[in-house]
Design brief:
The protein is mainly α. The protein has two domains: 80 residues, DNA Methylphosphotriester Repair Domain (3-Layer(aba) Sandwich), CATH 3.40.10; 115 residues, Homeodomain-like (Arc Repressor Mutant, subunit A, Orthogonal Bundle). Helix content is 59%, strand content 6%. The protein has ten helices and four strands. It has a four-stranded mixed sheet. A hairpin with a 4-residue loop joins strand 1 and strand 2. The radius of gyration is 28 Å and the shape is elongated. Bound molecules: zinc ion.
Length: 221
């Protein structure tokens, strides 16, 4: 004899199992760890409360089986979920500081590549004009100046600690135009790359000599 209640239980269990499997592990981890990197890349609703959140929401972690994933806030609203008062998944734009942190992070990882303002704006989801203005207001320098600083910093390190040629170093830090690289280097450090290397290596050699002398003869004082 068939028990209709039993059938319903089976159907519910089946549905829960299916929903559970539908949440990719990456998204589930983002929810559990309140990962702000995933904000606005998806939203999650909790069927028991009828509320939906950003992944970074600090509210109590939901039961996985009650979670529904939405690509857009509008989808969650259409499914009759209410926006969370705490993380405001609909009402708030990404704060400028957070956005500039994302841009800075991207530059730090990619300054050795060819980088244009258009490319930055493209990968960081904004217009070139807006990106330029916001970055400068938050960081105090333009994105281009920031990229140049990173490149010259890296070039100084390579000049001091490797025997790579100027051409190699220029290309290695994303400035394949060597005359331009030399001009920029001089403008920012007061020395040409070659002068910097000579002074640095001379200084390092002096230190070694002094050390060896003191080591061999003992310090006088
Ligand atoms: Zn929330």
């Amino acid at each position: 004899m068939k028990d209709p209640w039993n059938n319903r239980d089976t159907a519910q269990t089946e549905m829960k199992r299916r929903i559970k499997e539908d949440i990719p592990e990456e998204k589930w981890q983002a929810i559990v760890s309140n990962d702000a990197d995933y904000d606005f890349r998806f939203f999650y609703g909790v069927s028991t409360t009828g509320i939906f959140c950003r992944p970074s929401c600090k509210s109590r972690p939901p039961n996985k089986e009650n979670v529904r994933i939405f690509q857009h806030a509008e989808e969650a609203l259409a499914a009759r979920f209410r926006p969370c008062k705490r993380c405001k998944p609909t009402g708030e734009k990404l704060p400028d500081q957070e956005w500039v942190n994302q841009i800075t992070d991207y530059i730090d990882r990619h300054f050795r590549d060819k980088l244009s303002l258009e490319h930055l704006a493209d990968v960081c989801h904004g217009s070139p004009f807006h990106l330029q203005r916001t970055f400068k207001r938050v960081q105090g320098i333009s994105p281009v100046e920031y990229i140049q600083r990173k490149r010259i910093q890296e070039a100084k390190h390579l000049l001091a600690h490797t025997d790579q040629s100027i051409t190699e170093i220029a290309a290695g830090v994303g400035n394949s135009n060597v005359p331009y690289f030399i001009t920029l280097f001089k403008k920012m450090t007061g020395q040409t790359p070659l002068e910097f290397r000579q002074i640095w290596q001379h200084g390092a050699a002096l230190e070694v000599q002094t050390y060896e002398y003191e080591h061999d003869h003992g310090k006088q004082n």
